[in-house]
């Protein structure tokens, strides 16, 4: 089967590691990003260096018009989609609920939840056998925060990731007979720039002692789980949420 993958937020962190790992396993990869075109281009170059095709696509996953344009460009540039990794995600600075704002919560859900639903909708329209597609796989990025709640840090983020867990379960069952498997990965504390964007660049090192394995994880360790869930090796796995947390 043709293997064409879209990784949202593929310009750095877990998304970049996933794009590179997927290329090594034979996927052509579309690398989505919002701000850092040079970083996305560098990931695309890494995909091409492994003999696969790559496309760089700028789009805010929370913006419907941009997402529709992105999928149209993907159709034209790489051909039929068979995999989606809903990886684009944001946190915010630490804030209790009594210090929160509607604007913050709306953005948190717009990117982390609606963005994933929007990209999943476009992927299902292309991959489902019900629509003449050849099937495929969807992997959503949840977070251990969905289990832990992230009290005092970002319960809004945790709630959004909880929504991703339920969305994964429901969508998986909705398309189970249509050639599409849907799963989620719940990373724990992973060394990426996301902690700096939440105002705490040293967060992974600070929290490492709380992890049973006594260390933060790497983006590539999460990517390995994602690429396995996309592969035929997980052929009977759907509606699953896989913790990649070092035991946390
Ligand atoms: P990261 O290093 O902050 O990278 C985020 C990526 O998403 C970047 O490529 C960024 O592109 C892109 N992005 C941000 N907002 C976007 C939007 N609205 N539309 C499209 N792309 C957007 O994040 P990460 O740590 O790799 O996290 C990836 C996923 O794993 C997220 O869903 C996150 O919630 C989840 N996760 C991470 C951890 C962790 O400890 N790192 C733990 C649990 C779950 P630009 O740079 O171009 O803006």
Explain what the structure shows:
With 248 residues, the protein is α/β, with parallel strands linked by helices. The chain has a single domain (3-244), classed as 3-Layer(aba) Sandwich (Rossmann fold), CATH 3.40.50. Helices cover 44% and strands 15% of the residues. It has a seven-stranded parallel sheet with strand order 3-2-1-4-5-6-7, with helices on both faces. Strand 4 (83-86), helix 4 and strand 5 (136-141) form a beta-alpha-beta unit. Helix 1 (13-24) packs across helix 9. The longest helix has 26 residues, at 102-127.
List the keywords:
binds NADP nicotinamide-adenine-dinucleotide phosphate; Rossmann fold; 9 helices; alpha/beta; 7 strands; globular; 248 residues
Strand order of the largest sheet: 3-2-1-4-5-6-7
Shape: globular
How far apart, in Å, are the first and last alpha carbons?
Answer: 37 Å
Strand content: 5-15%
Poorly predicted segments: none
CATH fold title: Rossmann fold
From the structure provided, what is the oligomeric state, counting identical versus distinct chains? single chain
The total number of structural domains is: 1
């Amino acid at each position: 089967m043709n293997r064409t993958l879209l990784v949202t937020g593929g310009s750095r962190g877990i998304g970049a590691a996933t794009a590179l790992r997927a290329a090594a396993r034979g996927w052509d990869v579309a690398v989505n990003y919002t701000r850092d075109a040079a970083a996305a281009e560098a990931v695309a170059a890494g995909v091409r260096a492994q003999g696969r095709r790559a496309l760089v696509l700028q789009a805010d996953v929370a913006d419907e018009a941009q997402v529709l344009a992105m999928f149209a460009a993907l159709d034209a540039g790489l051909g039929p989609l068979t995999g989606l990794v809903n990886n684009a995600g944001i946190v915010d600075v630490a804030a209790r609920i009594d210090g929160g704002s509607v604007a913050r919560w709306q953005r948190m859900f717009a990117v982390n939840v609606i963005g994933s639903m929007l990209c999943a909708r476009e992927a299902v329209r292309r991959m489902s056998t019900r629509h003449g597609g050849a099937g495929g796989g969807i992997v959503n990025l949840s977070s251990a925060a969905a289990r832990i709640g992230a009290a005092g840090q970002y319960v809004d983020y945790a709630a959004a990731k909880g929504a991703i867990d339920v969305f994964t379960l429901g969508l998986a069952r909705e398309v189970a007979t249509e050639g599409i498997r849907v799963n989620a990965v719940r990373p724990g504390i992973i060394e990426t720039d996301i902690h700096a964007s939440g105002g705490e660049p040293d967060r992974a090192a600070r929290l490492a002692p709380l992890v049973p394995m006594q260390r933060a994880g790497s983006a590539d360790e999460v990517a390995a789980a994602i690429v396995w869930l996309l592969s035929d090796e997980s052929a009977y796995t759907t509606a699953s949420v896989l913790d990649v947390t070092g035991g946390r």
